[in-house]
Amino acid sequence: MSKGITLLTIVSGLIVVAIAVGVGLYTYTNIQAGNSYENAEKEMNRYMTINDWYSFEVHNREQSILSFYTNEDRSVIGLAEIDVTTGNLGSVTKEIEPNQSFDFVTLHVENKEYIGVHLKERPEDVVYLRLNGDDVSKDFLVNDPENESYTMTYVIETTKPLDGSWSLETLDDNKQVIHLSELTE
């Protein structure tokens, strides 16, 4: 009888130890992931400060942080992404076109394309952005007509490479084209 109780006590103890180790590893992994985002945010802020960039938008993605930014006189726009696990930073900038109703910049990172759009002319009238490509057309809600406020920037994420002929359209609430621009850099 005492061997059975001893064996039961040992098995129960091993189960408790296994659970404690599992919880400890889970907590450690989550803390490390949290530190990764915190470190990536610090690195992104350092990059922005050193280069005198000002963020339009910052997005926490699944494995990265993405920033859509401009310079002080808004003559340049850019996108930067930092991977939270490796710390690798990719960025691109583009001078704005003064006579365009919107400007855009594209960033290719691994299997993703990001398109940062800065609406300059009557952004309050733009409700949708439409991305047109070879056999692809997709609308993105930018400014909800039910909401009185509006945004002047938007970031599109796509897994389709922007090879071939692509265009970006601004649309009103009736999905009528306001302006069209070919996506060439």
Number of distinct beta strands:
11
Order of helices and strands: HEEEEEEEEEEE
Q: Write out the strand line-up for the largest beta sheet, numbering strands in chain order.
A: 1-2-3-4
What is the CA–CA distance across the termini?
A: 81 Å
Sum up the overall morphology in one term.
elongated
Helical/strand content category: alpha+beta
Strand content: 35-45%
- Rg: 24 Å
Query: Helix count, per DSSP?
Result: 1
Runs in which pLDDT lies below 50 for 5 or more consecutive residues are 20-33
Mean pLDDT: 81
Q: Biggest β-sheet: count, sense, barrel?
A: 4 strands, antiparallel
Share in helix: 25-40%
Molecular structure report:
The protein is an alpha+beta fold. Helix content is 26%, strand content 40%. The chain contains 1 helix and 11 strands, in the order H-E-E-E-E-E-E-E-E-E-E-E. The protein has one helix at 2-50, and strands at 54-60, 64-70, 76-83, 89-95, 102-109, 112-119, 128-133, 136-141, 153-158, 167-171, 177-182. The protein has a 4-stranded antiparallel sheet, with helices on one face. A hairpin with a 3-residue loop joins strand 1 and strand 2. The longest helix is centred in the N-terminal third of the chain and has 49 residues, at 2-50. It is elongated and about 90 Å long.
